[in-house]
Design brief:
It is rod-shaped and about 130 Å long. It is mainly α and about 140 residues long. The chain folds into two domains: about 35 residues, no CATH class; about 80 residues.
Length: about 140
């Protein structure tokens, strides 16, 4: 019944048996579905009702399709957001790795320099055998 009203049809011929003039056509009915007069495209009320049920089913499915399309768009938006987040994290990771490598390289260079400095200091502090030997000969 609601589907008849939904499509702009007068529902009284179907709801009220007292109404005998169910063939009277509304302009909306004529424009969308034709007429039920002799020679029309519908041969019976049941055929017309079947067409209305099919139309309602089509509209329901179209609504479902629209809802699915909206869901797909929402999922695509989420995927896009996640891809951007992954990209930002990858960039951040690369920057962090670069800074870490740079820091480790500096520490390595500083360690090498300290080792060289230590070797030089040890060399300066070590008594030199050649000086000691020459000095022993001097005082004997």
């Amino acid at each position: 019944m609601l589907s008849l009203i939904r499509y702009g049809l007068d529902a009284t011929p179907f709801s009220s048996p007292a109404s005998a003039d169910w063939t009277s056509e509304s302009p909306v009915w004529s424009a969308q579905w034709g007429s039920l007069s002799p020679g029309s495209q519908y041969s019976s009320v049941s055929e017309m009702e079947e067409k209305l049920r099919m139309r309602a089913t089509i509209d329901e499915r179209a609504g479902s399709i629209r809802a699915l399309e909206e869901s797909v768009r929402a999922v695509e938006g989420t995927v896009s957001t996640l891809q951007e987040e992954v990209s930002h994290r990858a960039e951040s990771k690369a920057r962090t790795e670069g800074l870490l490598k740079q820091s480790l390289h500096k520490q390595y260079e500083m360690t090498l320099k300290h080792e060289d400095d230590l070797e030089e200091a040890e060399a300066r502090l070590k008594p030199r055998d050649d000086i000691i030997v020459s000095q022993k000969g001097k005082y004997n």
